[in-house]
Amino acid sequence: MNGLLCYCRAGFEPELAAELTERAAQAGHAGFARAERGSGYVVFADDEADRLSQALPWRELIFARQKLRLIAELRGLDPSDRIAPMLATLPSDRRFGALVVEHPDSDESKPLSGLARSFGNALRPALRKARLLSAADDAALQRLHVCFVAGDHAFLAISDPSDSSPWPLGVPRLRMHADAPSRSALKLEEALLCLLDADERARLLRPGMRAADLGAAPGGWTWVLTRQGLHVVAIDNGPLRPHLLDSGLVEHLRADGFAWQPQQPLDWMVCDMVEQPKRVAARMAEWFARGWCRHAIFNLKLPMKKRWAETRTCLSDFAHAAQRPLTVRARQLYHDREEITVFASPAGPG
Question: RlmM ferredoxin-like domain: which residues (predicted)?
Fold first, then answer.
């Protein structure tokens, strides 16, 4: 089977299908998407899957948590022996660095978690005996993925470590810290992991840097920034959790995030205000156009309909109104709901 298998948030399959279809067409591919709402995944069939995968880098996809290159779709698997048909399907000249057995992140597929664990324990030694899997995890080799969508229905796929998420299902498992003012802290923590690489986190998040958090209350995003050693001006007419001020790194100003502006340029601006996405995108662009910040992470709350079209329009308008070359990455994160998270930074090194 030729094509891609991409995971997404359950309910956003139409958005992912629309994104893949449009991006593929722009790259000259006439494939088609197969999606079922609530399934947590989309199959994009294309006869030139290798070229398509190169044309659609994982880091540039917004609604895809994970991007895999399909090998086969197996239906009607016999529960007494699912391994044999998989071994027969896999190319004998390929060796994988790791095995990932998983299921889509959907209510319908959650009962498959036990099967995924037990099947992985059975399949690994069989793959090693067949010389298809390295004796120890090898990060330089492609990973083999088995995705169960039912007990008798599975996809076989591969991932390139340099062009896919390192986490099963594309979801970094983060724990809520006892001191975090709100669960929204997990959004920014995930954004820093998913939208920045390790080198960028080391260069762009240094103790002593200055930041603004627009719409800060109760302080989840401010708390994440202070844990990186940043000094934060928290902008919100609502109250912050009192312990945030104990750090000595936070100044709380009761003001409107759409009206307040800094007295001098800041290293960072973050924003999770609940407002129409076009209005937020326009305000974020103003910050860059006026030179008020160097880097930003912000959320865009999406409408109930035409969410891919709204996403595309907002990001295009933002990039144009910022009036400077920017690196822009966006993704619907695991801890997002009806929204996407955007990272913006000056294009090029620095």
Answer: 1-68
